[in-house]
Structures are given as C-alpha cells and as structure tokens.
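Incident review: delayed structure delivery

Summary: a single-chain prediction request sat in the queue longer than the usual turnaround. Root cause was a stuck worker, restarted by the on-call engineer. No data loss occurred. The affected request and its eventual output are reproduced below so the record is complete for anyone auditing the incident later.

Affected input:
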Amino acid sequence: MAMMMNDEEYYGSGFEEESKPSEHPTCPFGCQCHLKIVQCSDLGLHWVPYDISPDTRLLDLQGNYITEIRENDLKGLTNLYALVLVNNHISRVHPRAFLPLVRMQKLYFSHNQLTAIPKNLPPSLVELRIHDNQIKKIASGTFLGLDNMNVIELGRNPIKNSGLAPGAFDGLRLNFLRISEAKLTGIPTDLPYTLRELHLDHNQIQAIEVGNLVQYVELYRLGLGYNRIRHVEQHSLHYVPNLRELHLENNLLNSVPTGLPEMKYLQVVYLHSNNISTVDVDAFCPHGFGMKRTFYNGISLFDNPVKYWEVQPTTFRCVNDRMAIQLGNNQKK
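Output delivered after worker restart:
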C-alpha cells in the first residue's frame, strides 16, 4: 500500500479528479469504506463482494480466500484506480473481467496461483505487480495496447528464457522490470528498449555476453546479483553507456569485469562475495588522462579472496570518498 501511494511524482495519485457521488452509497458487509476507498482485507472472503460502490477508487481485497475473478465481479467500477488482490488463491481470471475498469492504473496480483498473465488488461494500466505466482510463459502480444505502462514486477515465477515468447513485450514503453527468483539462464534480449531499471537477481545466469545488452541503452540500474556469472565478455558493457548502478554481488567472477573505466556515469558497483583475487590499478578508473563524468560513490569488494593490502591506492583515484570503498579480507566461515 505504501508503494502505491508514494509514487505520485511519476504518474499522479489518481485521486485528484472528483466523480459524481453515488445517490445510494454502499459498503460491503464487514468492509471499511471511506473517501472512495473500500478495504475488505483479511475477512475470509471467497468472492469479490457484489455491492461495491461505483465511486470506488481503491479496492483492497488482499489476504482473503478468493479463487477466481468472474466476468461480472468488477462490473460498474469504471472509476477504479487501484485494485489490490495480493495474498489470495486466485488461479483463474475471466477474459472479460477487467473490461469495465477503464481508468484503472494499478493492479497488485502478487502471491496467488495464476499460471498466465490475465487477458485484456486495461489500456490505462501503469503498474502491474504479479510477483510469486505460477507463471511459466509469457505469450507473444501479452502486453499489446498497454502504452502507459511504467512498472512490471514478475519475480518469483518459474519463468525460463524459453518461456518468454518472441514479441512477448511488444508495444511496451516500460521503465522498470523485475524477473528475479525465476529460472533464467541468460539475460533476455527481447525486452522493452526503454527500460531504465532491469532486475534479474536470484536466477541461474552464467555470463554476460556481447549482444545481451545491445538494445538496453537507456539502462541506469542493472541488477544481476545472486546468479552464477563466471564471465563478463569484453565490450559487453559498452552498450549501456548511461549505467549508474551495476549489481554483480554473489556470483562466481574471478576478476573485475573489463570495461568499467569507460563507463563515464557509473557510480555504484557491487562485486562482493565473488572469487576475485586481484584488482588491477586500472580496473575502475580511466587510464592516463581519461575523463569520468561522475565519480564512484560505492564500490564493494569484500568477501573476495583478494589481498586488500596489495591493492594500489591509486586504483580508487576516481572514487568520491574513501568511505565509499568496501574492501576487506575473505572471511572463512
């Protein structure tokens, strides 16, 4: 709920526009209704209540026992802005269930039993969080028509690379995508080119290869922690010149990835808990008179077998402050 209310700077709160008050305002039994917000969480409900006021802007149904969203469950809720269905047992959504929701911008569907992205999502949708379901495949054209999307959270679904059909993300101009705790073995190469943040942590990715990041030139944050990455191919980071943060912690790297000194805007690099044994004097900073637009404010190298007393101080000559460096001896457990 806090996430939903604190991102007004990106796409507005959605509650500014007043709608005509209902002549006969209703509130489902056991729910709490106030200022067009209907809260029916943790009531043991098995179905969506039938008597929800058409003026409702936020409908909270989390923590119930709902198993299905039927065709007419949301009928008449044309003013709905946000729908919270987290922590239910939903495995089926009728293909026409969301058609009445012509103004809905936020849909929270995490912790359910869905096996596919629901069909006919409202074109007005901005944020979709469908974390922790049973989704294995995303079909081609799943998000067609969703021109206003900003955030998609798909973490903790058993998605493999083969489960991302060609064209699955066609039509999206997306800023944030998370597919963490899935079954990816490589960086998907057919995601929206507009991405600013891509989080693929806790997967089975083994390498960053040339061509993996070609179309993601807008990225400023890339999360690849907790994978099995042993190798970052030379020049593979060349295609993300605007990157600010790179997370490669808890992998199997033997050395600092090449190409970091050429990344003029890179500020944060997480490399802790790898197998890095040496750090070259030019591992992070441009050689000679090379220029870096922004200095580092965070480099983590702890929990690596590197002998920190052998690292030359000039290695961190383009770091903003010495406190930004986290470097320590490898600790045996």
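Verification: The chain has a mean pLDDT of 91.
Action items: add queue-age alerting; document worker restart procedure.
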